[in-house]
Amino acid sequence: MKKLTITDIASKKGKEKIVALTAYDYQMAKIEDEAGIDIILVGDSVANVLLGYENTLKITMDEMLVFASAVARGVKRSLVVGDMPFLSFQISKEEAIKNAGKFIRAGMDAVKIEGGEESIEVIEYLVKNGIPVMGHIGLTPQWILKIGGYRVQGKTEKDVKKLKRMQNCLRRQVFSR
Length: 177
Hints:
By secondary structure, this protein is an alpha/beta fold. The chain has helices at about 5-10, 25-35, 45-50, 60-75, 95-105, 120-130, 145, 155-175; strands at about 20, 40, 80-85, 110-115, 135. It is built from eight helices and five strands; from the N terminus they run αβαβααβαβαβαα.
């Protein structure tokens, strides 16, 4: 069984469905991997789901790394993506690469960064330095304080165009390697 790579996932786009699920522990990751899931995300939603935090803003990088390494140990085939928690990438590009590197060392194949145009410089920096990034636009739980809660995005034509611009920008980062 061959380990999936970013290139494998990209080659599926438009040709076949790409299946992605979240896992927080070794056992669930193993089950998802054996079921043939393409991408397993170690989401910062573990903050709410398993740790009882009221939102995703409180989980730390150290806490995320415990779950990330447990998931990585359960996976042989799936591409595993670690969700960069709040303030692990927003402070500086140097802080972002340090934290993304911790995820890679924990067994992640890529990291996920939430946000739109405000995150693009960090995304470009990580990709330029060899760390694949999955963008997360639309519903952005790490921005709940700024936007006043969980809000549906892309309701207006202007917002839709902004989301599509960000999507295209992220796509260029992945395929420009």
